[in-house]
């Protein structure tokens, strides 16, 4: 499962696809959720866009969404503070269906 409880919040397994035509939740990639971002993986721009997209979908300030591991790679663990895995899953899958 791509979302699990962790330290008062949720830990997400994310696969990032940089340089996409549109920023969106693409679907599933193994035990991760795949997120497309328009930015290239240069100087952290793809990471920033990923955090911004997730915070918008979840309706949270960006300070509650942080990359825990995988800063330099496509596979990332992202911590979402103060939100249950069920709420995260509901919002992400809703966003996936509407894109």
Name the features.
single chain; 99 residues; alpha+beta; Conserved Hypothetical Protein Mth637, Chain: A; 6-stranded mixed sheet
Task: Describe this structure as you would to a colleague.
- The chain has 99 residues and is of the alpha+beta class.
- It is 28% helix and 36% strand.
- Strand 1 and strand 2 form a beta hairpin.
- Strands 1, 2, 3, 4, 5 and 6 form a 6-stranded mixed β-sheet that branches.
- It has one domain (3-98): Conserved Hypothetical Protein Mth637, Chain: A, CATH 3.30.1200.
- The chain contains 2 helices and 6 strands; from the N terminus they run E-E-E-E-H-E-E-H.
**Structural domain count:** 1
* Mean pLDDT over the residues: 94
How widely separated are the two ends? Answer: 21 Å
Total beta strand runs: 6
Give the biggest sheet: 6 strands, mixed
Briefly, what CATH class? Answer: Alpha Beta
At the fold tier of CATH, the topology name is Conserved Hypothetical Protein Mth637, Chain: A
- Using the CA coordinates, give the radius of gyration: 12 Å
Task: Give me the number of helical elements.
Answer: 2
CATH superfamily: YggU-like
Shape: globular
Question: How much of the residues is beta strand, in percent?
Answer: 35-45%
């Amino acid at each position: 499962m791509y979302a699990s409880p962790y330290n008062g919040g949720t830990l997400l397994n994310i696969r990032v696809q940089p340089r996409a035509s549109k920023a969106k939740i693409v679907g599933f990639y193994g035990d991760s959720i795949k997120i497309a971002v328009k930015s290239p993986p240069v100087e952290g721009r793809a990471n920033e866009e990923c955090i911004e997209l997730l915070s918008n979908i979840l309706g949270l300030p960006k300070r509650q969404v942080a990359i825990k591991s995988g800063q330099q790679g496509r596979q990332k663990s992202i911590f979402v503070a103060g939100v249950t895995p069920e709420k995260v899953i509901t919002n992400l899958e809703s966003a996936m269906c509407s894109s």
